[in-house]
Description:
By secondary structure, this protein is mainly α. The protein has one domain (5-157). It has helices at residues 5-13, 24-36, 41-62, 68-83, 87-103, 123-147. The longest helix has 25 residues, at 123-147. The protein starts with a helix and ends in a 20-residue tail after the last helix. This is Xylanolytic transcriptional activator regulatory domain-containing protein. Residues 90-165 form the Xylanolytic transcriptional activator regulatory domain. One of its GO terms (molecular function) is DNA binding.
Amino acid sequence: MFVYREAFLRDHFGERKGCKYWSSALLLSICALGLLMSETEGERNLSEQFFQAAESIVMVSGLSRPSIPTVQSFLCLAFFEIGRGNVSKGWAFSGIAFRMAQDLGFQSDPMNWLPHDSTIISSEDIEIRRRIYWGSYISDKLISLILGRPVQLAFDSAEVDLLEFIT
Length: 167
């Protein structure tokens, strides 16, 4: 929902220097979350190692260098923590992800602030930004519903088009 698989895999299997859609923290976060859902106890136990590695990366460098993979990592880590019952930490991680997404301007449509003939941002970049924003929005509503806490992202503050499955 908030990870654009095609771009993530392209960057994962391509040259990683300067990639925009992959990071080791995101890969570790995805692995941790996936292993947490495993039916095998041994695999579930491995999830903690992946989680700790991802958490150490995003807490050290992610907060000072906001990026697409960092937002996605924090969201994965939020769902990981909530999934294992650490709701306060999961709530905090989700809040970091939502604020970072807003800091990066994902709630704004780049076509409103860039020249229409701009080559600065590709149509894929615009689509990924849109998916991250609405994925964060849906995650915010889901997490708030599950935990009985207030939402953080307001529908009215979004300038980006809705995702097709939402309309």
